Amino acid sequence: MERVISGIRPTGNLHLGNYFGAVKSFVKMQDEYDCMFFIADWHSLTTHPTPENIRSSVKTILSEYLACGIDPEKAPIYVQSDVKQVLELYLYLNMNAYLGELERVTSFKEKVRKQPDNVNAGLLTYPCLMAADILMHKADKVPVGKDQEQNMEMARLFARRFNRIYNVEYFKEPASFYFADKAVKVPGLDGTGKMGKSEGNCLYLCDDEKTVTKKIMRAVTDQGPTQLNQEKPEVIQNLFTLCELLSGKEAADYYNDLYNRMEIRYGDMKKQMAADANTLLAPIRERILAYSSDDALLEKIMRQGAEAAAERAEKTIEEVREIIGFRKI
Ligand code: ADP
Ligand code: TRP
Fold first, then answer.
1. Of the bound ligands, which one is closest to the alpha carbon of residue 38?
2. Residue 38: which H helix or E strand, with range?
3. pLDDT at 192 over 90
4. 128 with 238, same domain?
5. Which residues form the pocket of ligand 1, taking CB atoms under 6 Å from any ligand atom?
6. Which member of 111, 141, 215, 270 is catalytic?
7. Which residues contact 43 (CB under 8 A, 6 or more apart)?
């Protein structure tokens, strides 16, 4: 059975971008593939969280994974820092990753621009750690959002390079996997770019009903079309993208027709989106609360996940050590 791995950094609550871009695929895939999902807490250290931040975010994201429908009986969930073998592979991959190519990664360049006083080595070698997460499991498919494509290309490059250097056919090149026929990029409620925590334009899975409605009703729009069949400006295109995700294609087509006839009332469209968002989120919200108050259950799930992941990771590391020329330990 094909293997699937994916993870999300615990840096706050999950939002609709994470849900439609990644977690929804995780839930779909767990029935058809040999899946494992993890919480990428080592990756989150690039922003220097406090111990309290880490502890609470790991618990939050685990509860949210479960609330979205990941079933740890089908797909073990583990915390990255529980599986130390990943670090050893990270080190080996670092030795074959070149400064120039790491510096050219767009998300690294963006961090350099946005946080010039914290350009740490962990940020630079982020793609190596991510590749270690993936190659460790010899994953065939990795469900991620579009923004991760460059990191995925690096993972494939590192796999090929390792095989070439040691003249083996050891690592598989992992494919990015999108739940929809194309990569989803969930726009933010401010009408621009993507929904993201650092953008402050998110609808969170744990937002209460009132907040969901308020945020959607306030989503940025314009004065409305001034010509028949007018091309949509970016903010409006984004609203339609969100509408299709929340209310379905039929609803989006219906409002599109109204738009083309210059009869659209954004307020009506948003009301429907808010109602559908609440229908989607109400049960998730309830389950988040239930899981996050059951520490014993969360602990058990993390322990079982770590055991399953470590077993696989250990096997890979033993083989990699042998390929590189290290003694068996
Ligand atoms: P954030 O941008 O809020 O920090 P992350 O970068 O931690 O979110 O993303 C975690 C996962 O969710 C990744 O697989 C990413 O591709 C996906 N994701 C995040 N935001 C979006 C979005 N707006 N559209 C599609 N996928 C997204
Ligand atoms: N880089 C991913 C993100 O920011 C998180 C991540 C780390 C990941 N390691 C991974 C995703 C391995 C998929 C597979 O969202």
1. 2
2. strand 34-39
3. no
4. no
5. 8-9, 17-18, 21-22, 144-145, 147-148, 184-186, 194-197
6. 111
7. 7, 9, 80, 126, 129, 130
Query: Is 111 among the residues known to form the active site?
Result: yes
In a domain, 65, yes or no: yes
Going across the sheet that includes 34-39, the strands are 77-79, 34-39, 3-8, 141-143, 175-177
User: 22: CA distance to ligand 1 center in Å?
Assistant: 7
Residue 62 Cα distances to 139, 171, 223, 226, angstroms:
21, 29, 42, 47
| Residue showing tokens 């990270």 | 90
Do 279 and 301 belong together in one domain? no
* Beta carbons of 257 and 268 less than 8 angstroms apart: no
What are residue 176's DSSP bridge partners? 142
Q: Spell out the residues 6+ positions from residue 95 whose beta carbon is closer than 8 angstroms to its own.
A: none
Amino acid at 63: S
pLDDT in tens, 234-287: 999 999 999 999 999 999 999 999 999 999 999 999 999 999 999 999 999 999
| Domain of residue 229, residue span | 209-289
Question: And the tokens for 239?
Answer: 């609203």
Rounded mean pLDDT, 63-88: 98
Residue nearest to atom 7 of ligand 2 (CA): 130
**Three-state DSSP class for 179?**
coil
Q: Are residues 128 and 230 in the same domain?
A: no
Alpha carbon distance, N-terminus to C-terminus of the chain: 30
If pLDDT is split at 50, 70 and 90, which confidence band does 191 have?
A: confident
User: pTM value?
Assistant: 0.92
Residue 152 C-alpha to ligand 2 middle, in angstroms? 9
Question: How many A from CA of 260 to the centre of ligand 1?
Answer: 32
